[in-house]
Every structure is written in C-alpha cells, then in structure tokens.
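Below is a filled-in request sheet from our internal design queue. Each sheet records the structural input a requester submitted and the sequence that came back. We keep these sheets so that new team members can see what a complete request looks like end to end.

REQUESTER: design group, bay 2
PRIORITY: normal
MODE: inverse folding
CHAIN LENGTH: 268
BACKBONE (tokenized):
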C-alpha cells in the first residue's frame, strides 16, 4: 500500500522530496513576509510535536492577555530555514537544540530569551497489526520491510533516530527499509494507518494516538543527543514584550503541567 500524500517508498527519492518541501516552505514564507502579524497577534513557529500542548497554552494566553497566537507548525529544520529567509515570526520553539543554535549563530534570535522548556523520549511504535516486535533489534527481521522515521535533514526526531540506529549498529541493515517523513506527526500517521510496519516518534506523539499505536521500546538515553526543546524570541520581532509573556507562560508551573499532560518531561 502506498501512503497518501507521502514521500516515495524509495529512500533514494527522499532528498528530492525534502528539497521540494523546503522550496515550497520558503516560497510561502516569502509570500507571508509582506503581511506581518498585527499589534495584538504573535506568530509562533513551533515544532509540530508541540501542537496539542501549545494550542492549549495559547488558549489560556489569549484569554488573559487578548493577544492572539498564530501558529506555524512544522519540522524544526524547515521552520529554521523559513526564519533565516525572513519569514515573519515572533517566537521559535524547536524540538532540537541544533536548529536554535544555528539561528543563534546567525544572530537571528535574542540570546537572553532562549530557554529550554521540555524534554522528550524517543520510542519505537507499531500499529494495530504487523510483525511481532519487542525491541529496536527486531527491526532487522525479514518480515519488517517499512520503517517510518523523520527525515534527518530537517526533522530532529529523525536525527535522533539516525543516531540511535547508528549507536545500536543497526543502520546499515535497516537503511533500505527506512521511509522518510516530512515531520514526526507524519510518521505517526503512517503507523496509525498501517502503511508501515513500525515507526519512531516521541512519547508525546504516541500518547496523542491513544490505543491506535503500541509502544514497543524506548530508545536508550545514551544512544542519541539529549532531546531538549528550546524556545526564544526571534530577533526581528516587533513585539518582544508580548512574546516574553507567552514564553513565561510556557515556563510557568501551569504551562509545564500542560506539557506534562501531553507526554513531555520537565527539564528539571
């Protein structure tokens, strides 16, 4: 079965898909740059794995401040490139430190505003049916032919997965089975729809699927870089005070409790 609206099953075709996604994202960001947010609106570019938790936090923020939050959810690497190309954004929340580090190196964020606000856990998941799996090593079984992961070029979860498979000495044997998705939620969708035999996502993503997926195994913590979520105000923001209030809510005990409800771990 070929997934609808997904990348080619052939791994060799993935880079072209990634470049096409980036081209479209940059084109759209260029179109948006002519219409920045209004004075009572903040644009928050955030990793798609934060979607559910951030939507809830935004509702609270809007009720209390009257400032509307307009989200731009996507793969952290794509969002980074959008900001580098001048796309309007007041806040960037990444699923990986690397993307924030690169924006910082380009002087595109306000350093003092940068804070780590959550951790996550990488897990191997399966849908309602498929080969019997109990560990990452089981992915080498002959009856496992399709494994969805985030594209390591643009998706932090994909980068962590590649690190994990490399550390476990599984990557060479699994390379031909890997299906690269545009973001971690697309990985989840493939697994839920039964279009792959397994996928690697964050615990927070698996939680949103309820009983539609089964967590097979947790990636060893020492098999990949720490999964930290940083947030910062974009240097070009004209609403730094309002942006800081949103960040303060995310960092507050109330915001942290909401994140915990959606499967994120505290940084403490």
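RETURNED SEQUENCE:
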């Amino acid at each position: 079965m070929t997934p609808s609206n997904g990348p080619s099953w052939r791994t060799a075709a993935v880079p072209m898909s990634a470049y096409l996604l980036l081209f479209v994202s940059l084109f759209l960001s260029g179109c948006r740059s002519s219409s920045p947010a209004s004075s009572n609106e903040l644009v928050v570019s955030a990793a798609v794995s934060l979607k559910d938790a951030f939507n809830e936090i935004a509702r609270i923020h809007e009720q209390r401040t009257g400032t509307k939050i307009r989200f731009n959810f996507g793969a952290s690497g794509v969002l980074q490139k959008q900001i580098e190309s001048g796309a309007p954004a007041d806040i960037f929340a990444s699923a990986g430190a690397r993307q924030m580090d690169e924006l910082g190196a380009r002087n595109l964020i306000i350093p003092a505003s940068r804070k780590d606000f959550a951790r996550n856990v990488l897990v191997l998941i399966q849908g309602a049916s498929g080969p019997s799996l109990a560990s990452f090593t089981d992915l080498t079984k002959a009856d496992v032919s399709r494994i969805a992961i985030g594209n390591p070029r643009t998706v932090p979860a994909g980068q962590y997965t590649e690190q994990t498979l490399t550390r476990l000495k599984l990557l060479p044997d699994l390379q031909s089975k890997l299906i690269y998705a545009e973001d971690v939620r697309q990985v989840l969708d493939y697994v839920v729809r039964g279009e792959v035999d397994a996928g690697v996502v964050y615990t927070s993503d698996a939680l949103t699927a309820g009983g539609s997926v089964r967590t097979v195994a947790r990636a060893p913590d020492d098999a990949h870089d720490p999964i930290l979520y940083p947030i910062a105000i974009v240097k070009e923001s004209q609403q730094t005070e309002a942006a800081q209030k949103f960040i303060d809510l995310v960092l507050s005990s109330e915001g942290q409790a909401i994140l915990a409800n959606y499967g994120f771990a505290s940084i403490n």
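SHEET NOTES:
- The mean pLDDT is 89.
- The longest strand covers residues 41-47.
FILED BY: M.R.
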